[in-house]
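Note to self: the last two entries modelled the partners one at a time, which told us nothing about the interface. This time every component goes in together.
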Amino acid sequence: MSSTEHVVEELAPLADLDIEAALDPAEPDGVYRDSRECAALAIIAGGGAVLLAPPTPRPKKG
Amino acid sequence: MEQSGTSPLLLGTVQDVASGVVSALRGGDHARVADLAAVDGGAHSLVTAAVRVVGADLLLPDVLRGTPPDDAELALFTKAVQAYPPRRDTKPTVAWSHWAMRRTLRRLDAPAPGRPVGEPDGSWLIEADWQFLTQQLAVLAALALPTQDSTVFRVARSRPVDVARGFVRAVRRRDWQQAAGAGRWLTLLPGVPDTLGLEAGLDFVELMGGDDPRVALQVEAARRMRAGAFV
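The predicted structure of the combined assembly is written out below.
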């Protein structure tokens, strides 16, 4: 048995764990902040233009 | 914001391993990771899988400082490379993260298991829209290292404004892990708009994603590279 075969066999119980899902996760659903909330957070964080940028376009419903 | 499709057990171990890397980046040591590696049986297998998920970043502190890695940690890293090769039909990010681990071994003059492999195909990223580009780059944040060229790096370098837009989008969606990964890339890219406020943005991401060591890892890596900590 080669070294690689040995290692793969040793770790076989982990086959159920979806390593690929962890390595290439789907983008989770996001909850957008509104601009006023971002402005407040920017002040708390010490100021950051990033958070005051115009809202990112949201996908249209329907 | 948790990622779907990953078992809680594996996710928790990934966070433990990432926490050890953060500790080392902040000037601590790798004791926690080495301790994790010292366990036997199923737990050892779980840690090996977690190391594969954390990927090349496990050895980031040594790569940044130019120091030799701990023997036990290097053995664990090599074992993860060997145990989880990319499948023939695997997704590009999986192939690239495996390639990044092999590149890290080469950089540290450590033997890489198996036959030498070239760069995976990078064409999937070239035509990606800015949202998908940022999400994929964040997943592959371990490739964001100064002086470490790759097709992925060249694509990122050619689209700094798109990555900046993606960073803002991730912050507004409260996807702190994606924001931290994108922020790490932006630290290295030329042509990032000053109006982005990257430094304050990274502080904010760290603040909001503070209890997730995977977020802290990317923010800390960005800071170290921004400070020029690279040998």
